[in-house]
Task: inverse folding
């Protein structure tokens, strides 16, 4: 016995003439009951750096301490001062730890801080 299959006819018809575009990709979607916050002006790198430094001043301090210990330690290593170089590399690790702790505390403080 051979099985015969009937062709499937779709009840949906497509309308291509005169239909409005359901979504304009150049604009954000309109959601009823939601008003997006106004866009603030774009800030430059310098403005953002100053704002972030004021929010958490210990991160740049830790970064500068890390870079200073690294550079001074590399200089001591190149001059053959191995003891001083080892101490400065340990200081660099301490400064890196300080920076990571400052970042974590800053993120936690920003999460707990009430929005204005």
Result:
């Amino acid at each position: 016995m051979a099985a015969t299959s009937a062709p499937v006819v779709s009840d949906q018809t497509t309308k291509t003439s005169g239909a409005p575009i359901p979504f304009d990709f150049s604009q954000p979607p309109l959601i009823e009951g939601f008003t997006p916050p106004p866009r603030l002006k774009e800030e430059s790198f310098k403005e953002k750096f100053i704002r972030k430094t004021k929010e958490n001043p210990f991160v740049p301090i830790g970064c500068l301490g890390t870079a200073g210990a690294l550079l001074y330690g590399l200089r001591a290593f190149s001059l053959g001062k191995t003891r001083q170089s080892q101490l400065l590399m340990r200081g660099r690790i301490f400064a890196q730890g300080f920076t990571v702790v400052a970042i974590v505390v800053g993120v936690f403080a920003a999460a707990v801080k009430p929005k204005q």
About this structure: The mean pLDDT is 83. The chain has three helices and no strands. The two ends are 76 Å apart (CA to CA). The CA atoms of residues 21 and 98 lie 55 Å apart.
